[in-house]
Amino acid sequence: MSSLQLEGVAKGYGSRKALDGFSLEVGEGERVALLGPSGCGKTTALRLLAGFEAPDAGRVLVGGSVVAERGRIVVPAERRGIGMVFQDLALWPHMTVRGNLEFGLRAQGVPSQERERRIHQMLARVELLEYADTNPGSLSGGQQQRVALARALVLRPRALLMDEPLSNLDEELNLKLRAEILQLQAEFGFALLYVTHDREEAFALADRIVLVARGRTILEGDPAG
Ligand SMILES: Nc1ncnc2c1ncn2[C@@H]1O[C@H](COP(=O)(O)OP(=O)(O)O)[C@@H](O)[C@H]1O
Ligand SMILES: [Mg+2]
Question: Is-above-0.70 flag for pTM?
Answer without folding.
Answer: yes
